[in-house]
Known about the structure:
Layout: H1 5-16, H2 21-31, H3 35-45, H4 50-66, H5 80-89, E1 92-97, E2 103-108, H6 119-145, E3 152-157, H7 169-182, E4 187-193, H8 197-206, H9 212-215, E5 218-220, H10 226-229, H11 266-282, H12 301-337
Parallel strand pairs: 2-3, 3-4, 4-5
Antiparallel strand pairs: 1-2
Helix pairs in contact: 1-3, 1-4, 2-4, 3-4, 7-12, 8-12
Amino acid sequence: MGIGSEEAIRQLRALMDQVEERLKCTFQNVHQGYLTETLERFLKAREWNVSKAHKMLVDCLNWRVDNEIDMMLTKPILPVDVYRAVRDSQLIGLSGYSREGLPVFAIGVGLSTFDKASVNYYVQSHIQINEYRDRIILPSASKKYGRPITTCVKVLDMTGLKLSALSQIKLLTIISTIDDLNYPEKTNTYFIVNVPYIFSSCWKVVKPLLQERTRKKIQVLSGSGRDELLKIMDYSSLPHFCKREGSGSSRHSSDGAENCYSLDHPFHQQLYNHIKEQAVQESSRPIKQGSVHVSLPEPGAEGTEIARTIELELHKYGNANANRKSNGLSNSLGSLKI
């Protein structure tokens, strides 16, 4: 590494003091007053190499300016039926907070279909949630708990994961790459629950491809993970799919306020209302309908390799299943002949 972490932060801060004026405003939206923690995140993402972290951060700021990311919370997805369709097919929500004050985000990996809207809508929605988290949720949590809170916890529900996930890999890789390049090191821990066999099969081959710092953040829990998660959060903050003793989940809940994926959940109501209010404040003209177009990044070598590996494993799994079914059918027909 060559230099200590404090020295690396000092050097990166000095470099960032020299960035051109057009980047300084968006940089404030990135760090929200927590400059040291932000510099540390980008340094971690580049293994504490100051020059690489500087390039990454400047590239991020240019991406934000070029794509008007600072204005993303003024651009609601309209009409509301389109947004509801996005929410029903891109399952994510804030279920509560850990005892340390970290926001707990639930993500329905297995049951998200991404088939109700265009790629641009899903990307727009994802970035809006990121921006709302970083500019509203985390600063509020920091104020409440009296210390910097700049990361969150994610609980990934694998219920329903199947071969159809192949059709989602490209979009998920785009979203993951946006996060890796522009919102690095924002997740403290990933808890993976309700794991089916197909995930276990993929995980064995994908895990070695991940960087060590990423692997250390991932915990695969038994069943719904309820007992383990209750060690770090209260019952009220558990995602709805973790409140059962066994495994299993559902896309919808009869109580919209309970299901943190639902547009009727307080988190999504607050987020959507905030965006609409900001839109009205920013412009006296009627709010335009249609998605926001953001330049989509090319996945890096690591992301491409992981996506390719997942595809291969899913194909293998599919072929094995097909062979088992074929053999089962042959045996059944053979039995009938006898």
